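Entry type: protein chain
Record version: 2
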Amino acid sequence: MRNQTRVLLAAAAVSLLAATGCEETDDATQTTNAASTPATVAANAPEAPEETKELIYLLAVRGNPAFNDASDAELLELGHLMCDIIDDVDGDVRAAQLAMTIQMVSDGLDHMAEAAGHMFGAAVVSFCPEYEDQL
C-alpha cells in the first residue's frame, strides 16, 4: 500500500509540474530526471498545496470499496483526525492507528474500521508525512 500511495503521489506531482508548465532545460538534469523512479520523484517533489494533498488522499482512499458510501468531507475529516491523533500520542503511529480504529467502531463505522489501515496510510502520506517512516 505504501508503494501504491507513493506512486499516486509521484504521478500527481509530475502531473502538477506538467500542468504548471514547469520545464527544466539543463541536459544533465533532464538525464537525471529521466532515470528517476516514481518514489524518488515523490521524495524530491516540492510541498504540494493542500488541495492537491486532499485530492491524492481521496484518490487513494476511494481505491478501497469500504469507503464508497462516505462523503469526501467525512473522509477528509477522518484523514486529518488521524494525524491529530498521532500528534496526541507523541508520534506513536501504531497506538494512533489502534485508537482511530476503536473510535471508528464506536462511531458505528465498522465497515470502515476493517479498512482503517488503508485510510491511515493514505492520511499519513498526504497530511503528516513526518510519520511516514513508521508505517
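Comment: Helices lie at 2-19, 27-34, 38-44, 50-62, 72-88, 93-106, 110-113, 116-127.
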